[in-house]
Specification:
It contains 8 helices and 8 strands; from the N terminus they run H-H-H-E-H-E-H-H-H-H-E-E-E-E-E-E. The protein is α+β, with helices and mostly antiparallel strands. The protein has 2 domains: about 130 residues, no CATH class; about 100 residues, no CATH class. The strands form 2 sheets. It has a 6-stranded antiparallel beta barrel. The longest helix has 16 residues. The two termini are about 25 Å apart.
Amino acid sequence: MSCRCAPSFGRVVALVVLTLVLAVAGCATTTAPLPRTVTPAAAPFAFAADTFEFPNHIRARDPHRPDLYANYCFVLARAVRQFHAAARFDPGAPKLDAAAYTERVRQVASRTAWDPPLPPSERVVIPGYRNLRDFSRDEEQAVKAGLGGRFWTWVHWTNWRVTFRVDGPHQENVAREIVDELAAGRLVQLLVTNWPKPELNHTVVAFAVREGPAAVEFDVWDPNDPSGPGVITFDRTQRQFVATRVYDTEVGPIRAFRMYYSWFL
């Protein structure tokens, strides 16, 4: 249960009751094919450069630390996408103080996650650093302050989906959407769960894909594990996702949903 990012499944279940009508509408929306649109592609994504140096901690492993940076997985996953689409690093420019860096991060984090990537001239400039990994290592506290709080990610109305069963065609459609988005150069944030098993209620970001006749493998960045990529597999025969290598999660079937890709979902 250590991979969970929300404070408790009880809150998620309560949210289901309060938003039942929206839930039904949302379920239909995620099953329907997305319209094809042409938007600018972001720059190529490199795990070692374009991710955060610090992790989202798992509170169950250290429950008594009041300053633990835990339950921020949704914040961090969304922010990786926002930095990839809206920030530009300038290592040759003079460094700023912590307050100025915090403001730059706020500017990046305030951008809607599903907006198209910005051209270099319109991006928020992060001076003095080569990439997000170096920046978040040296300016960890400034970055965390700029990313803001986690409360609204806990109560986002789409979190109810962890309690819903889905069929093979739905998951096949999600896999197709991920492949299409990655082919267009856009990162894909996923809500992943194996509920009712109390282990996984989490988010990861897919950034690469390998397609085979029997399965499709997605390389993912996991906010809980900055050391290296994880892998989520779509089994074409079973028409289901599998947690092949997800941090602190047993290998086995999971359900996957796209996150933060429109004003509705």
